[in-house]
Amino acid sequence: MAPEEFARRAGLAFRDPGLLWRALTHRSYLNEHSDALEDNERLEFLGDAALDFLSAAWLYRRFPEMDEGKLTRLRSALVRTEQLAAFARELGLGEALRLGRGEEVSGGRTRDMLLCGAFEAVLGALVLDQGIQAVEAFVEPRLLTAVEAILGDDSQIDPRSLLQIWAQAERGETPRYRTVDASGPDHARLFVVEVTVGAEALGRGEGRSKQEAAHQAAADALARVNHAPRGED
To answer: What contacts 221, CB < 8 A, 6 or more positions away?
Structure first.
């Protein structure tokens, strides 16, 4: 899909089409095409910052009685890698990406991390092209749909809390989390975290922050011990 077709489907109209082309250019494409001048990682950095601010401000206004802890957990659920990748899929963003041959063959168009980064890069391009208000208008309807699903889904309950309850009840232990790997550039780090209960390693997870990676590690551990989330009392 051409970038212009993607913009039309997404309801976007860029004054500077070059910004959109850059947002859709993965670094693997840059490595193979001398005519491409810049990949989307700097725009991803900008879009990530804009989304963090806008989602926090939107939640603050929409839930005036919600305390800081719940607001933080809800924002984390809204901007986690899987959720942003879901937004990207709804827009058909993967079809419009400019990828190198190796990334294409390995399934890059469907990979959560890549789709998440590209979605943020599009937001960053929109900031530069039309300002933060344009990004706000674009993301708020998607935040509304996502937050309704999150609040209505018991599986969104923090798996770290559920794992702690299970570990203390079944093992008399407190889960411990350890960062076992970190890779990627400073603005797009990928962390791998392992969770142990006693001497047993129960799960691993990866994410763009240590908190997200620990969240995924706890979810992995819960799946291994067949402890499905049942909801809050």
So the answer is: 159, 163, 175, 195, 197, 202, 203
pTM value is 0.69
- Residues with a catalytic annotation lie at 48, 120
Position 219, amino acid: A
Query: Which of 127, 152, 177 marks a domain boundary?
Result: 152
Q: What single letter denotes the amino acid at residue 73?
A: R
Question: 127: helix, coil or strand?
Answer: helix
Positions of E strands within the chain: 176-183, 190-197, 200-207
- Here the CATH number for the domain that contains residue 167 is 3.30.160.20
For the segment 71-112, what is each residue's pLDDT rounded down to a tens digit? Answer: 888 888 899 889 999 999 999 999 999 988 888 888 888 889
Are residues 137 and 73 located together in one domain of the fold?
Answer: yes
Distance separating alpha carbons of residues 123 and 138, to the nearest angstrom: 9
Radius of gyration of the CA atoms of the chain, in A: 19
